[in-house]
């Protein structure tokens, strides 16, 4: 399943030759999105007749890197860097591309460690930009930068902004992403760093964390365990759900073809579902299991900090202008996700 996804990403008509003989630093390499970025580059080395790209996989925990990439064994094109992304990166070899995907990404993490969430998006971003990569810098931002008051601007384009209350702890993520984007734009303008930003909307797929409080994560976890799906809301909130391979292909498109200092939405604008619709879709993917949907109240002690935004769907016309389009609908995507865990 994963190898098929990687091959499909590499089939995209992108200038993959730009990576030949270069070094790519991936911060947050053990995370859900970072893993697919690293695996795509390693797969390219195995399948393309190009000078190999060298991947520096950075994560805070060496055990996580071993768990994610240990199957590769010892290979010359992969090196682990075990450290916090906010710490200075060793400058013992040139770095040509940087992909900054190091940040907590779940509302439960925002409640547990708001300081670390903000730091990963601001202080780590500045530290990585200071490496001044010559060929490309990609910052993984989020649709949360659009804030509140934008529910009427659907699909949401890159120039539409709502507001965030900076005194609310929940803003650690959205404000952190906004500040990280501003740093990228400033380094592009003042220092000539070829920095681009991707505003990633809800993404699911193989390797996604299960049971982290996000509805699509919890629903998939329930389905895999053979449990009835539990919904802790009225089910009317809607989000656009994008399959992992499509999201990562979009990220590579921006890294290789995007304009410096520019942000691009990445998401599936044709896969907006309410929570109730999503729950029913996942329950019905494998009808022989007889899964049902039931409602429960959220636990009072749960640190999960839900978003007050009722509707989210990106306008991806800017990214489509670079030749990208999502290729996987939610029915196929969630079925592939379920099968990947078995």
TrEMBL record:
GO terms for cellular component: cytoplasm. One of its GO terms (molecular function) is UDP-glucuronate decarboxylase activity. SUPFAM superfamilies: NAD(P)-binding Rossmann-fold domains. GO terms for biological process: D-xylose metabolic process. Pfam families: Epimerase. Residues 24-267 form the NAD-dependent epimerase/dehydratase domain. Its cofactor is NAD(+). PANTHER family: UDP-GLUCURONATE DECARBOXYLASE (PTHR43078:SF7), UDP-GLUCURONIC ACID DECARBOXYLASE-RELATED (PTHR43078). This is NAD-dependent epimerase/dehydratase domain-containing protein.
